[in-house]
Structures are given as structure tokens and as C-alpha cells.
Write a structure and sequence with these properties.
The protein is mainly beta and 93 residues long. The chain contains no helices and six strands. Strands 1, 2, 3, 4, 5 and 6 form a six-stranded mixed beta sheet that branches.
Length: 93
């Protein structure tokens, strides 16, 4: 979403498994939603990019077996520039 909470369609979402460098890229739909299925378990860094918005990077995400995780991002308007979303480990049940 953007700062007002509006969906951002066609944003690129990249998942990088930090132990193996496995990468999966997906794009948000018209409602700003995305799906990345069958990701290998382990620690991840996620990057989100969209035209007219600053890039958001979130690290410390840890996925486990058969887990369904929901990650939401808020993008700020501006030129592409890396903005760390979180550097603390995130674990999902």
C-alpha cells in the first residue's frame, strides 16, 4: 500500500533466501496483493519496488515448513531509494 493505504498494482516483490541466494520474484495484482507459493524454508530478505515509490527492504524473515505468512508493505512516494523496513528477525507461526 501507499502512505494513504491505497493498493499499489504492478509492484515487484522479490524474495531472497539468504542462506542459498534462492530468489523468487512476483508482481502485485490490481488490488496490490501477491502470492509466492512453495518457497524453501529458511531466512529471507524481501524487496518491494514500484514506479514512483522508494524501494522497501525487509530482512530477518524466517519461513518454516507448511507455513503461510502474510507480509504487508507500505511504500513511500519518491525516486527509487532503498528504505529498510525492518532489521530485526521476524518469525511467523
Amino acid at each position: 500500500t501507499d502512505a494513504s493505504g491505497a493498493a499499489i498494482p504492478n509492484a515487484t516483490v522479490v524474495f531472497i533466501q539468504t542462506q542459498t541466494n534462492f530468489t523468487r520474484t512476483t508482481t502485485t495484482n490490481g488490488q496490490g496483493e501477491y502470492h509466492a507459493e512453495f518457497l524453501p524454508v529458511g531466512p529471507y530478505t524481501t524487496k518491494v519496488e514500484a514506479t514512483g515509490f522508494k524501494e522497501v527492504i525487509q530482512s530477518g524473515i524466517v519461513l518454516s515448513v507448511t507455513q503461510q505468512a502474510a507480509l504487508n508493505f507500505s511504500l513511500q512516494p519518491g525516486a527509487a531509494r532503498k528504505i529498510p523496513s525492518s532489521t530485526s528477525p521476524a518469525r511467523f507461526p
